[in-house]
Write a structure and sequence with these properties.
Strand order of the largest sheet: 4-3-5-12-6
Number of helices: 11
Shape: elongated
Radius of gyration: 24 Å
Order of helices and strands: HHHEEHEHEHEEEHEHEHEHEEH
Structural class: alpha/beta
Largest sheet: 5 strands, mixed
Length: about 300
């Protein structure tokens, strides 16, 4: 007996998620439907396939053996169907799902939204946070189209490219520094700092850069988002070190000064990650080209 394609899709989703509820959510099905499909697969393949575990399920030896062939077959089948489908962004109603780090969301989301409104007005753009680290299964399982953030080391089995670099600037409360004064190292280290510590690689990146240069920060407040930094700096009469593109967006609306960091902290990359099985997908090619056009404005293409 050969299982039907819908059952193999269920197998693939459960294999990647290791959780029946998560697999059902990913497939847009009820948990009972997925459980029923697994029961049919067990009969067809003569194996339990998945065993209950503490936080979900664990595949059996046979499931592990057949999983690569099933995944490859589903990929080839989907690519064949996609290749036969013409793609017109102006008429597409597809939902494009992107995972963005906190910095990338602030810097790129407005430009992405404007580009979609102009070039794909009927399509839907959904942006979700990456979280502390990128789980490659989100892209391998096509839960999301691509991710934008900082990936070091690059996740295995994904295409990772740099799209642009950014440096650092200081946003400073006006009362903390006279108009004609210079923000030198001594004043930088004395002023009360609002430290931005979002999840992921950026959280440790700036800490390492300041430590490597010996530049100290007199930490007064720690926040988790860049957009919280500016009003907090304004209220405490302090300073924050943020990416240059963020400073350009948030300093003026809160009456803050946008100034150079006393020591050169270098630059950091913003990268895009996506799964190779989307290489020839017309919809994904369009999305990557759109992001490329936006990134050229931000710095350079990929």
């Amino acid at each position: 007996m050969s299982p039907e394609i819908s059952l193999l899709r269920v197998f693939h989703a459960v294999m990647e998620e290791r959780n029946v509820t998560a697999a059902a959510r990913r497939l847009g099905q009820s948990q009972s439907t997925v459980s029923g499909a697994l029961a049919r697969l067990r009969v067809a393949l003569g194996d339990e396939l998945f065993l209950r575990a503490r936080y979900g399920v664990e595949p059996t030896e046979k499931a592990l053996q057949i999983a690569p062939d099933i995944a490859a077959g589903l990929d080839r089948l989907e690519l064949a169907f996609r290749a036969a489908e013409p793609f017109d962004p102006t008429q597409s109603t597809r939902r494009f799902r992107l995972l963005l780090g906190p910095y990338a969301e602030v810097v790129l989301a407005p430009s992405l939204a404007a580009a979609f409104a102009r070039h794909a007005p009927k399509a839907e753009l959904e942006i979700a946070p990456i979280g502390p680290d990128l789980d490659p299964r989100s892209l391998a399982g096509q839960s999301f189209d691509l991710a934008i953030g900082r990936f070091s080391p690059p996740p295995e089995d994904l295409v990772v490219s740099e799209i642009f670099n950014d440096g650092f600037r200081c946003i400073v409360a006006p009362e903390a520094l006279a108009d004609d004064a210079i923000l030198d190292r001594d004043l930088y280290e004395r002023l009360p700092h609002v430290v931005v510590a979002p999840p992921g690689k950026w959280r440790t990146g700036l800490h390492k850069l300041t430590a490597d240069t010996g530049l100290r920060r007199n930490t007064a407040v720690i926040v988790s988002h860049f957009l919280t930094a500016a009003p907090t700096v304004a209220r405490i009469g302090g300073i924050a070190t943020v990416p240059a593109r963020i400073a350009a967006l948030i300093a003026e609306p809160h009456g803050l000064r946008d100034l150079p960091v006393p020591l050169n902290l270098g630059t950091f990359p913003t990268q895009v990650a996506w799964h190779p099985h989307n290489r020839s997908d017309a919809r994904h090619i369009w999305l990557r080209e759109l992001l490329n056009a936006i990134s050229v404005v931000e710095g350079k293409g990929f």
